[in-house]
Amino acid sequence: xxxxxxxxxxxxxxxxxxxxxxxxxxxxxxxxxxxxxxxxxxxxxxxxxxxxxxxxxxxxxxxxxxxxxxxxxxxxxxxxxxxxxxxxxxxxxxxxxx
Length: 98
Fold this sequence. Notes:
The protein is mainly beta. It is built from no helices and nine strands. It has strands at 13-14, 16-20, 23-26, 33-34, 39-46, 50-59, 65-67, 71-75, 80-88. The N and C termini lie far apart (61 Å). The mean pLDDT is 87.
C-alpha cells in the first residue's frame, strides 16, 4: 500500500484578473484555477486605440507590486489578484515611457 501526503500538493486556487481600459491577455488566465507555487506568464496588448500601461499584482488587497513590461511572469499564490491597465494610445509618452 502506498500512502500519499496530499498536504504536500496544495489545491488549485482561482486567479482573479481585472482589466482597466481596453486590451487582451494571451493566455487569459482570468478565473483560471492554478496551482500555488507554479510559474505562469501572460502578455498584454492594447486594442481599440489603447496601449498597455502596467500590471499591479497583489494578495489580500495589499499594496501590491507594479510592473510595466507587457509580458508578465508570476508565481501563483492564494488570493492573487492581477490588474492589467490599458490607457488611450494618445497618452503614451504623457503617462508612460514611449
